[in-house]
Amino acid sequence: MLRLRLKRTGRKRLASYRIVVMEQATRRDGRPIDELGFYNPITKQSTFDIAKITNWLKVGAQPSETVLYLLKKADIIKA
User: How far, in Å, CA of 14 to CA of 1, rounded?
Assistant: First the structure.
């Protein structure tokens, strides 16, 4: 099953995350199928590739709980 989920980047205690498409069984920092955006929880900055995200959702990829929250907050997915 394909998932939209977060991949951790950045150094210790200064984490930032990339929003990626991965197989559900793949480890957290494994190779993604596609990169869709970026989220920095420290500065609350986020960027999304809306066209890619909607395409992957149409194909059947399921967002994780955190990614779903971020997409709703950015009005990409309607609640």
Answer: 30
For the chain, the farthest-separated pair of C-alpha atoms sits apart, in whole angstroms, at 35
pLDDT digits (tens, 9 = 90+) for 28-42: 889 999 999 999 999
Query: pTM of the predicted model, to two decimals?
Result: 0.90
Q: Sort 2 into a burial class: Cβ within 10 Å, 0-12 / 13-18 / 19+.
A: middle
42-66 pLDDT, tens digit per residue, is 999 999 999 999 999 999 999 999 9
Q: Would you say residue 19 lies in a domain?
A: yes
CATH number of the domain enclosing 10: 3.30.1320.10
Cβ density class 41-68: b for 16+ within 10 Å, e for less: eeeeebebeeebbeebeeeebebeeebe
